[in-house]
Specification:
The complex is a heterodimer of chains A (335) and B (534). Chain A is mainly alpha-helical. Chain A is 77% helix and 0% strand. Chain A has a domain of 196 residues: MetI-like fold (Orthogonal Bundle). Chain A contains 14 helices and no strands. Chain B contains 18 helices and 19 strands. In chain B, strands 11, 12, 13, 14, 15, 16 and 17 form a 7-stranded mixed beta sheet that branches. A 4-stranded mixed beta sheet of chain B has the order 1-10-9-8, covered by helices on one side. A 4-stranded antiparallel beta sheet of chain B has the order 4-5-7-6. In chain B, α11 packs antiparallel against α13, α12 packs antiparallel against α14 and α17 runs antiparallel to α18. Classes of the chains: A mainly alpha (335), B alpha+beta (534). At the A-B interface, α2, α3, α5, α7 and α9 of A face α1, α4, α9, α15 and β16 of B.
Chain lengths: 335, 534
């Protein structure tokens, strides 16, 4: 097992180097330049421009800049934001828990609803439930998130007044951020009503973020179940006279879950992409919004190191998924 | 009241009892973005200035609320020498800096703080010049304070003398701007000793109406009323900025009572706001201009008659309806009507496509094809440049001029539009920094500004016009300055380097129970005068 993990970790190294190259190149390929954007309509004199570029090291050839960046990375220095002048890592760590909290709740919602819906749709294939849920999944999958988020805000916060519009907790609560996870911090704070407020603030954004993964998971579960239900071992289990519940729950579902878990793992990337829009709509202080702001300001250090951190996390989550995979399917572990 | 909000209220009542520091009056402002930091000097965005300069700090002088007139602030009075080169500020005594958990001031504000504030920006050798790696002072250098201020001298603890390298009337307006917010030298010394210099930017200490409490990145900024404020004490106890970048969401929050006031509503939402019985909408002409700048160095646009003819082809009222939804007024001068020295006697070019066509023919221009550049971003002065370009395109088509619309990424746009020999006319605009006409006319239209690094996108260099500006800048006689600028506007209108398009209106939606908010013509959001009625 340890060898398996080490081997997987080793595979990450060349991928990470590739990502530094892509992230570094990508933001520089975009037209526009941070110094000009900062100066705005007023403009900046060529002398001043040269001075700032030299100060930031942008007067050097790109390959030198890249090597310099790599060198700093190896020493654990991810650089400083051009806009806030703060270390990228500090900013990332301040914002990341908010994204994790939102993404975790979203993936839990997507899984807890998506898997049962997929299973029921598969065993009741062709029923009204199957047709309805799969149509809903198709709609969910194609949902423009920005529009969907605003619609929910206007309905549930505006018209009905059931949920708060945006933010992570009601502004009347003010306590130190211990973990950065509002659900936990609000409990630790001991302030009455803080946890309830944090939960109520999570409802709409997590539903919005869960929408696409939920649709994907439900469809994937359904098709995996359908495939497995036709397998010999399921027929054997049935022939043995096992209860329908046992056949579906143990023999079919456990095997069907393998591709579903892969799908859930892959949704982490989708969640990161969805977080950008969801966080912007719900004023959620996470890394999605941070990346978007930084790209539009051409904040090179934040974009290149932020992408690297996000990619690293997506890869680690996928690694964990691979390991879970091994738990469910021992054949993979032994290979 | 819905079930949920009733419960929230009950919960909050508990919280009120449980957490002592919560006060009766909390004012929540749904701000449009995150501040870049809390030291106002290195930054240039209004969002940062609202969160730092206006809430936490004061300047030597300040703009009288709702105007661009200068009034005393940390300087109680000042004298200007005959030659206009020496400004002596007499500082207010007994002004206390804020304190926080790491710093309690041992002395009141004095001349050392003023000198520290300016010198750390002015001199690259100053130990606090680059207290954060990569930090620069863009406003200080772009307002040319580095060239203007020859020396700063401490006469005594409460008197500071600035010596300028040339007489400059807008100097007082410059030192009212947020980038020269007075910071505490004693605080800087304390941070130096503690080895936490970056806290000057993270945990600001000022003399302003509100004391900084906490900032959660991209989410919330909290302030508390400064009980020792030297001016009139704020009416609210706590001030909270709830950072909400999307305009529609801001409005939803305002309607749900999650905040009391918001900036920059979406133009399409204005009617809904007006119709809402729980909200009110404050409006004021903005200190801005949206324009189309011809390249006056390239034929046939080097001929004023051609530019004039094109201007006469523009149906500006239609443009204002389509682009600004009517929330703007037609611009005839390069400065807005709210600015002093606005020349109202000038008549705008009459909309007359037939005459325009004839003028073009007379100038020998036939089958003209030109580019119109549409900026890719929204600004208060230009909510939709693409639509503006399309309106111009159809207006010009009526006089036989073919328009091709082009656009670039914003940084590129700014750069390419200042490149020599540029093809085509550029849509752009300007919002005033300090309310001085020089801040529009010199920055946007002087000969000096028609060079790389300037912002004169018409590349228009008219000696007579520039001379008038220079004279006005050097004069400390206000009436004389008014006359000079009025004259300059006449030349501008005759020469027509731009088509002046619009001055947009600024809107501030707020809850009905908000009182005392004074809109700033400069687009600042300051809350020392706001109050909440029951």
């Amino acid at each position: 097992m340890l060898r398996f993990i080490l081997k997987k970790l080793l595979y990450l190294v060349p991928t990470m180097i590739g990502i530094t190259l892509v992230a570094f190149g990508f933001i520089r390929l975009l037209p526009g330049d941070p110094v000009l954007l900062m100066a705005g309509e007023r403009g900046v004199s060529p002398e001043r421009y040269a001075q700032i570029a030299a100060q930031l090291g942008y007067d050097k050839p790109v390959w030198q800049q890249y090597l310099h960046y790599l060198g700093n990375l190896l020493q654990g220095d991810l650089g400083n934001s051009l806009v806030t002048k703060k270390p990228v890592l500090t900013e990332f760590l301040a914002l990341f828990p908010a994204t994790v909290e939102l993404a975790l709740v979203a993936i839990v919602i997507a899984t807890v609803i998506g898997v049962p819906v997929g299973v029921i749709a598969a065993i009741k294939r062709g029923s009204w439930f199957d047709q309805f849920s799969m149509t809903a999944a198709l709609v969910g999958f194609s949902m423009p998130i920005f529009w969907w988020g605003l619609l929910l805000i206007i309905l549930f916060s505006g018209v009905l007044g059931w949920t708060p519009v945006s933010g992570r907790i009601s502004l009347m609560y003010f306590f130190p951020q211990v973990t950065g996870f509002m659900l936990i911090d609000s409990l630790i704070s001991g302030q009455k009503g803080a946890f309830a407020s944090a939960v109520s603030h999570l409802i709409l954004p997590s539903i919005v973020l869960a929408t696409i993964p939920l649709a994907v998971i439900a469809r994937q579960t359904r098709s995996a179940m359908l495939e497995v239900m036709g397998e010999d071992y399921v027929r054997t289990a049935r022939a043995k006279g096992l209860s329908r519940r046992r056949v579906i729950g143990v023999h079919a579902l456990r095997n069907a879950l393998i591709p579903v878990i892969t799908t859930i793992g892959l949704q982490v990337g989708v969640l990161m992409a969805g977080a950008i829009l969801t966080e912007t709509i719900f004023s959620w202080p996470g890394i999605g919004k941070w990346m978007i702001d930084s790209i539009s300001r051409r904040d090179y250090p934040v974009v290149q190191s932020g992408l690297l951190l996000i990619a690293a996390i997506v890869m680690i989550v996928n690694l964990i998924v691979d390991l879970t995979y091994g738990l469910i399917n021992p054949r993979i572990r032994h290979k | 009241m819905s079930f949920f909000s009733t419960r929230m209220l009950a919960a909050s009542a508990f919280a009120l009892m449980a957490a002592a520091p919560l006060h009766a009056k909390t004012f929540v402002y749904c701000s449009e973005g995150s501040p870049e930091g809390f030291d106002a000097a290195p930054y240039t965005s209004g969002t940062t200035f609202d969160a730092s300069g206006h809430a936490v700090y004061n300047r030597l002088v300040q703009f009288k609320p709702g105007t661009t007139e200068i009034e005393p602030a940390l300087a109680e009075s000042w004298d200007v020498s005959e030659d206009g080169l020496e400004y002596t500020f007499h500082l207010r005594q007994g002004v206390k800096f804020h304190s926080n958990d790491k710093f309690t001031p041992s002395r009141d504000f004095n001349a050392d703080d003023v000198i520290f504030t300016f010198e750390r920006q002015a001199s690259a050798d100053h130990p606090w010049h680059e207290y954060i790696p990569g930090i620069t002072y863009e406003y200080y250098s772009s307002m040319e304070m580095d060239k203007l201020i020859k020396s700063i001298e401490k006469v005594d603890d409460h008197t500071v003398k600035f010596t300028l390298s040339q007489p400059e009337a807008p100097f007082l307006a410059n030192v009212a701007m947020p980038f020269v917010s007075i910071v505490s030298k004693e605080y800087a010394d304390t941070l130096e000793t503690a080895g936490t210099r970056e806290d000057l930017n993270n945990a600001p200490i000022g003399t302003g109406p509100f004391r900084f409490v906490a900032y959660q990145k991209d989410a919330v900024i909290r302030y508390q009323k400064n009980a020792d404020y030297w001016g009139e004490a704020p009416k609210v106890d706590d001030l909270v900025f709830a950072i909400t970048p999307d305009a529609s969401v801001r409005l939803q929050k305002l309607k749900a009572g999650e905040c009391h006031l918001m900036p920059y509503p979406a133009p399409a939402d204005l009617d809904e706001i007006r119709a809402d019985p729980n909200l009110k909408l404050d409006e004021q002409p903005g200190l801005n201009v949206g324009y189309l700048a011809y390249n006056t160095t390239v034929a046939p646009f080097d001929n004023p008659q051609v530019r004039k003819a094109l201007n006469m082809a523009l149906d500006k009222p239609a443009l204002i309806e389509a682009v600004y939804q009517g929330n703007a007024e037609v611009a005839k001068n390069p400065i807005p009507p709210t600015m002093w020295s606005y020349n109202d006697a000038i008549e705008d070019d009459k909309y007359d496509p037939e005459a325009a066509k004839a003028m073009l023919e007379e100038a020998g221009v036939k089958d003209l094809t030109m580019e119109v550049w549409a900026m890719p971003v929204q600004r208060p002065y230009m909510p939709n440049a693409r639509r503006t370009a399309e309106m111009i395109q159809s207006d010009f088509a009526k006089i036989g001029v073919k328009v091709e619309i082009v656009s670039y990424e914003w940084g590129e746009y700014l750069k390419k539009s200042m490149e020599e020999g540029r093809k085509g006319a550029v849509i752009l605009g300007w919002t005033g920094d300090n309310g001085d006409p020089d801040n529009f006319l010199s920055v946007l239209l002087s000969c000096a500004s028609a060079n790389p690094g300037g912002a004169n996108r018409a590349f228009w260099c008219n000696e007579a016009f520039s001379d008038l500006l220079a004279k006005a800048k050097a004069s400390s006689d206000h009436d004389e300055r008014v006359k000079l600028y009025e004259e300059a506007q006449v030349i501008f209108k005759q020469e027509a380097p731009w088509a002046t398009l619009a001055h947009s209106t600024q809107y501030v939606p707020m809850a009905k129970n908000v009182t005392g908010f004074v809109q700033s013509p400069l687009g600042d959001y300051a809350f020392d005068t706001v109050d909440l009625t029951e």
